Amino acid sequence: MTRGQDLMRPAPWIGSRSRVWLGLGALFFVTCPVGLATWTWTGLGRVALAAGLDDVPGIGGPSPGPAGAGGPSGTSAGSTSGTSSKITTSNPRVEAANASSARGTAGRGPEVGASAGPSGSEPLGVLRGGRRRYGGRRIDLDFKGADIHNILRLLADVGQVNIVTSDDVKGEVTIKMRNVPWDQALDVILRSKLLGQVREGNLIRVAPLTVLEKELEQEIARQKQLADVLPTETRIIAVSYADAKSLQERARDLLTGRGRISVDERTNQLIVSDVVANLNLVEDLVRNLDTQTSQVVIEARIVEASSTFARQLGVQWGGSAFRDAAHGNATGLSFPSDVAMAGGATDATAPQGGLANLAGAAASPNYAVNLPAAVGTGSGGALGLMLGSVGGAFNLNLRLSAMENTGQVRILSSPRISTMDNVEASIEQGVSIPIAIVSAQGIQTIFVDAKLNLTVKPHVTNEGTIIMNIHVSRNEPDFVNTGARGDPTIRKKEAKTVMLVRDGDTAVIGGIYQRNSGLSYAKVPFFADLPIIGFFFRNRRESDDRTEFLVFITPRIANRGESLRAPAASNR
User: Residue 74: its pLDDT value, please?
Assistant: First the structure.
């Protein structure tokens, strides 16, 4: 072995934490036998191998995936005759179910580019334009005017791969790189010289891009010719959950011109005839699409709460007074000789309960202030007081009444329904109220629905959340407020929205809160505003009514495990 070859080979005594610098003179020649080109370095040339300082998994073996960083020289491929298409899916829910697969990929090296290509024989990266990640040993390179063949020999030794170059590969390279994976350095060098690579396992063949592109075109043409002469087979593919007719059109796009596909509706199966490769593609497509559809259970809770409060304080008082000869207390004047005074607010409907009939008292209470509270059987209370003089010349009647009503009502409605993903479902309960309509044609009867209804259309996303189009309504007849013919009115409460809710969570669709509070007085002007005694000249009524309407929704995926297990198995 010559001195030049020894310099180009990594020293066997390099440790995992050591760095070796090979310094060369300002001008010298290294002559390499066996037909290798002569290197002429002008200026300072040096090579530094950083072994183990920034190593990543995969040292000593081929780089994981094709060298292709999106540029022309980043081509890597095996013979295209060995390649085949594959149906794959990208579903976060499936990836979550494949925890073991995710752990298997967690040990990859640090990403320098982006997505790594598959190992082994690959199509030409120059035509794919895909990005990749590099995982080779990191090295430092500093060359000026170095022959590309010797650079490739150096990278082959560092990466422990075999590199074969064609006769069209030639030229010199000037580079300076620090802490770069060797496979990325190879990509950059080939790109700078308009070269590409074809990778087959541990063997890399380097040739001009034009040559590789021509080989690819020839291989594509050969594959097309083979597709016209290869024997066809017929395969029956069973469909479990999907409709075979809906899959027929999607699978037809994967067939060749000689392929045919039909559906057996009785058994829900696909009958496919084509070459074996395309049959496998169709079967992969069917297995990925024919998965158990998610089944969603939607439960709504409609909560209605109302509270009422009313309080009323009333007063009635009056009487009569006489000063005349009949009662023995005449005035002794010519005018007025007799004087009589009595309250004038009494009518036929004025309540008189609680006022006893005293001897000599007036038959009428003669209310001067008649502002009672609404009391009676089952409501409030009242107390009457009568005062009279001897002989009945002076009478005073007083009646106090008070009323207070409170009430609370809570109504809980909980409709529940199950449906499939992207299928609308509805459930309702109620009555139909007949309403008579008089027209020129006579009396016609129509039915108006007063019902509880839940209509929902769910969609399960890839993350496991649920998007729902929801329409919830609760209509009930109100027999207190009726129409002119006595027909009840319909009290409507409904909510319509689109929501995103996680599986098993409860969300509030919406709500309506209403409060009616009031304070009113019925009083005698001026006197009612006087302190203390003003109470005897007014009626006070206070009310506070509150109603609340809330709608909750809780979706649950009933077959979450089964719907994820099938696509996860198909991807494996």
Answer: 38
